[in-house]
């Protein structure tokens, strides 16, 4: 087989996206001083929207971490909500869309961000090229620092310093570099920190060491240190220090903690290296030296962790709960592509409603920058060129040519591994050729193609490594489909003829043996069945065979991903390159009837599952239902932030965010024995405390601050695939205290808004009254779950921090979700996110995680 050479992936433009590299460490004053005064004070630039063009003032607030612009509602763009920054030609699509001249492109900025659950874009034109480059440098620098902090790649000192600066500036309402008692009281309300007035006065006085009646910034830092104390961490530290020893954590104690509590797999030398990063060195106690020593030598020293350094270690990347989120690609990428789960998008061209939404290249850019590796095109005849849109709806249209240009530009920015274009081709042969021409022109050597005739038979599919930097087209091969239909018709005819012969023999035997009423009834039934088979055969023969209308040029692009119709599993023969798409309803029917047959097929062949057409609101199913059957391409509506979206995103946080995750061993060839391994477990989670829980924001990005302090509680839920007939749910109360389990059964016949789901088992803590700043629960939850083939990475755990009294359907204040099998055990800080998975910079949840085996296979 021939194919074009790979492109040079090093030529791909890099964009400052979610995956930007972190900036070097620096202190908070450097960050603020590195932003030019002209942007901190405010500079007038042109703001462009679909409706109007207006000159407004833009201001960068580095300490608060946001961009502010003039508007009737006071526009705010928190840096944590930014999904992408585009400059110059990267934003050229919008410059053309809004009909601006080419010379403006050198001064153009587009910011894509999320507020109130909705993607938003803002377009800015700088007054000159010089101003543009200063603006670009300032925005990129600040954005990159904040992104580094959110992904855990910056030091805790910088994060703490930013927090202090941000809240100091917000609390200093008079801008006089002083906080009086009333300003501090208002700040505590904003921080969800409830103090009795007498207690707050006591802490205020403790921080005001000069007794001046106000706090300057140094005093404020002292106040912050007081209120941020974590007695729960201090207690853990004290328990680790051996009885009678000084208040120092030695390496031996640290090593024991890492083995016993954290279940660390690091070697002793690796543990020593970690310990050295956080320990201090002092002269050893002279009494520990040998009195028999007569030789002169350098003074002995000892290393130890104190309370602060141990606390810093717990919060650090060295103690990350989900290290796979931050690491490089580490899965073996040389196996057939059928052995991987692939991050996939459904109706990628839509950014809203399925019936009346907007078709745009924006959906492709967003998907590809989130490492999505399969995108979808629905292609129809246009007036002059083929167009992409949702057929039989009122959605807008976008040219195939523009979609290809967007894919080419962004395909390999986030990941170098292959992109599959899943196309539904509804246009005629003439415009099919135009589709091929557009792809060949835009993708060049990256596009996989091969001659239609003379292709050698494939034995197995190539690997992601083999296809690095390549673009594949998946579409239905109408010629192969017709051949398979003809073959199936022949098999059906043979089966019908054999069945007719059997019926005739049965009728003949029954007629000659007896004439009772029962026998007469049987004869009538058999004759009726014979008549129905003849009728069905006649209809099939009478049916006019559809004329195959497919471009031979299009056929040349179908090489490793050839679309065919699913004819069932078990006994059916498919070539390795044959790939079919199943709606969630069809997939559910196959899983209910032949779960293991589906798994066997997906060990060597690719299948794609997509949401049913009635999901007009672009809701999602829970994808792990289909991953557990081995389905590689489980497509989701990435514009909808629901539990299905969340599970999909955290699944592909793994393996360097490459968009490819190797399947667990039970789903790979020769994994049949593992599928017979059924086990039962408890997830034992001690929810210890939370730190700086966020205030909710309104649709404009403003914090909602009222007179009340939240009463938070934590809900921990497991989302488990439907891989056994009955769940593991022990009778009675299975947790300490009075908290009990909430079980949600699977839903495979969901409505248009509900998700096809697996099982959900959840527990809740009690609520903590009037404290959203540092609530402490210290409550153990024991959550039962069953597992097949040790596939814990296909069970997803979600921690949701909620407000007491909120409706069950309300979004949580903050949450964290991850594959259960990827979580590190022991004492860990969980980063918390909003419902769109934007990470809160300062909010965390402190927990202890263990998994306890109940029944081993």
From TrEMBL:
User: What InterPro entries has UniProt attached to this entry?
Assistant: C2_dom, C2_domain_sf, EF-hand-dom_pair, EF_Hand_1_Ca_BS, EF_hand_dom, PH-like_dom_sf, PI-PLC_fam, PLC-like_Pdiesterase_TIM-brl
Q: What is the E.C. number? A: 3.1.4.11
Where is the sequence biased in composition, kind Polar residues? 1-11
Give the classification, highest ranks: Eukaryota, Fungi, Dikarya, Basidiomycota, Agaricomycotina
Question: Which reaction(s) does its UniProt entry say it catalyses?
Answer: a 1,2-diacyl-sn-glycero-3-phospho-(1D-myo-inositol-4,5-bisphosphate) + H2O = 1D-myo-inositol 1,4,5-trisphosphate + a 1,2-diacyl-sn-glycerol + H(+)
Matches recorded under SMART domains: C2, EFh, PLCXc, PLCYc
Query: What Pfam families is this protein classified in?
Result: C2, EF-hand_7, PI-PLC-X, PI-PLC-Y
| Domain C2 as annotated: residue spans | 663-834
PANTHER family, per the entry: 1-PHOSPHATIDYLINOSITOL 4,5-BISPHOSPHATE PHOSPHODIESTERASE BETA-4 (PTHR10336:SF36), PHOSPHOINOSITIDE-SPECIFIC PHOSPHOLIPASE C FAMILY PROTEIN (PTHR10336)
* Residue stretches making up the EF-hand domain: 165-194, 195-230
Write the protein's name. Phosphoinositide phospholipase C
**One biological-process term from Gene Ontology?**
phosphatidylinositol-mediated signaling
GO molecular function list: calcium ion binding; phosphatidylinositol-4,5-bisphosphate phospholipase C activity
The answer to whether the entry has keyword Lipid metabolism is yes
Organism in which the protein naturally occurs: Marasmius oreades (fairy-ring Marasmius)
- Region entry Disordered, spans: 1-36, 282-303
Recorded hits in SUPFAM superfamilies, A to Z, give:
C2 domain (Calcium/lipid-binding domain, CaLB), EF-hand, PH domain-like, PLC-like phosphodiesterases
Highest taxon of source: Eukaryota
């Amino acid at each position: 087989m021939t194919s074009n050479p790979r492109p040079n992936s090093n030529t791909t433009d890099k964009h400052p996206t979610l995956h930007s590299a972190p900036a070097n460490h620096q202190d908070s004053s450097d960050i603020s001083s590195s932003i030019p005064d002209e942007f901190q004070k405010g500079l007038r630039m042109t703001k462009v929207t679909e409706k109007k063009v207006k000159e407004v003032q833009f201001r960068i607030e580095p300490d608060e971490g946001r961009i502010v612009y003039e508007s009737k509602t006071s526009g705010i763009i928190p840096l944590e909500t930014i999904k992408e920054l585009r400059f110059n030609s990267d934003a050229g699509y919008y410059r053309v869309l809004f009909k601006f001249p080419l010379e403006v492109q050198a001064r153009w900025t587009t910011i894509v961000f999320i507020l109130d659950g909705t993607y938003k874009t803002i377009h800015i034109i700088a007054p000159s090229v010089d101003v543009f480059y200063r603006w670009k440098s300032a925005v990129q620098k600040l954005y990159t620092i904040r992104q580094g902090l959110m992904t855990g790649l910056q030091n805790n000192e910088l994060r703490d310093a930013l927090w202090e600066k941000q809240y100091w500036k917000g609390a200093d309402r008079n801008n006089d570099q002083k906080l009086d008692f009333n300003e501090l009281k208002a700040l505590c309300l904003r921080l969800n920190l409830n103090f009795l007035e007498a207690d707050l006065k006591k802490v205020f006085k403790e921080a005001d060491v000069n007794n001046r009646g106000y706090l300057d910034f140094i005093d404020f830092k002292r106040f912050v240190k007081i209120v941020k104390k974590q007695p729960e961490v201090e207690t853990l530290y004290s328990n680790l220090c051996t009885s009678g020893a000084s208040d120092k954590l030695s390496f031996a104690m640290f090593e024991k903690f890492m083995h016993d509590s954290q279940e660390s797999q690091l070697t002793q030398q690796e543990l020593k290296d970690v310990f050295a990063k956080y320990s201090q060195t002092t002269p050893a106690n002279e009494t520990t030296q040998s009195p028999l020593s007569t030789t002169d030598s350098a003074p002995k020293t000892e290393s130890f962790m104190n309370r602060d350094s141990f606390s810093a270690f717990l919060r650090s990347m060295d103690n990350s709960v989900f290290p796979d989120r931050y690491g490089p690609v580490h899965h073996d990428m040389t196996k057939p592509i059928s052995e991987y789960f692939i991050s996939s998008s459904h109706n990628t061209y839509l950014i809203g409603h399925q019936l009346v939404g907007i078709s745009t290249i924006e959906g492709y850019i967003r998907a590809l920058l989130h490492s999505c590796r399969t995108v979808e095109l629905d292609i129809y005849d246009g007036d002059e060129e083929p167009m992409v849109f949702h057929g039989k709806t009122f959605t807008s249209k976008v040219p195939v040519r523009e979609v290809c240009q967007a894919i080419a530009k962004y395909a390999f920015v986030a990941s170098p591994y292959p992109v599959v274009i899943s196309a539904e081709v509804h246009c005629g042969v003439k415009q099919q050729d135009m589709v091929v021409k557009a792809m060949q022109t835009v993708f060049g050597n990256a596009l996989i193609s091969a001659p239609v005739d003379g292709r050698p038979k494939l034995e197995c599919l190539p690997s992601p490594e083999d296809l690095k930097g390549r673009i594949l087209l998946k579409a239905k091969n109408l010629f192969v489909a017709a051949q398979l239909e003809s073959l199936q018709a022949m098999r059906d005819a043979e089966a019908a003829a054999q069945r007719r012969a059997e019926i005739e023999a049965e009728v003949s035997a029954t007629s000659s043996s007896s004439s009772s009423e029962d026998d007469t009834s049987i004869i009538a039934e058999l004759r009726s069945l014979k008549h129905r088979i003849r009728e069905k055969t006649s209809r099939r023969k009478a049916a006019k065979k559809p004329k195959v209308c497919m471009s031979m040029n299009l056929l040349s692009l179908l090489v490793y991903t050839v679309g065919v119709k699913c004819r069932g599993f078990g006994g059916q023969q498919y070539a390795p390159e044959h790939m079919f798409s199943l709606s969630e309803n069809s997939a559910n029917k196959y899983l209910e009837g032949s779960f293991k047959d589906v798994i066997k097929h997906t060990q060597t062949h690719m299948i794609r599952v997509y949401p049913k057409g009635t999901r007009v609101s672009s809701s999602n199913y829970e994808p792990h239902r289909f991953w557990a059957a081995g389905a590689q391409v489980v497509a989701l509506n990435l514009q909808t932030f629901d539990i299905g979206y969340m599970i999909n995103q955290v699944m592909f946080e793994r393996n360097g965010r490459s968009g490819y995750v190797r399947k667990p061993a039970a789903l790979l060839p020769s994994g049949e024995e593992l599928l017979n391994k059924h086990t039962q477990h408890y997830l034992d989670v001690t929810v210890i405390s939370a730190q700086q829980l966020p205030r909710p924001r309104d649709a404009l990005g403003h914090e909602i601050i009222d007179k009340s302090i939240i009463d938070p509680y934590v809900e921990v839920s497991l989302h488990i695939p439907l891989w056994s007939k009955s769940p593991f749910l022990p009778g009675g109360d299975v947790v300490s205290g009075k908290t009990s389990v909430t079980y949600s059964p699977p839903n495979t016949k969901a409505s248009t808004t509900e998700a096809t789901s697996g099982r959900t088992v959840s527990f809740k803590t009690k609520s903590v009254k009037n404290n959203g700043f540092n609530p402490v629960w210290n409550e153990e939850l024991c959550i039962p779950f069953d597992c097949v083939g040790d596939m814990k990475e296909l069970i997803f755990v979600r921690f949701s921090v909620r407000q007491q009294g909120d409706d069950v359907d309300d979004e949580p204040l903050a949450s964290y979700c991850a594959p259960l099998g990827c979580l590190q055990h022991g004492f860990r800080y969980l980063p918390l996110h909003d419902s769109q998975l934007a990470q809160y910079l300062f909010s965390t949840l402190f927990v202890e995680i263990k998994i306890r085996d109940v029944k081993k296979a």
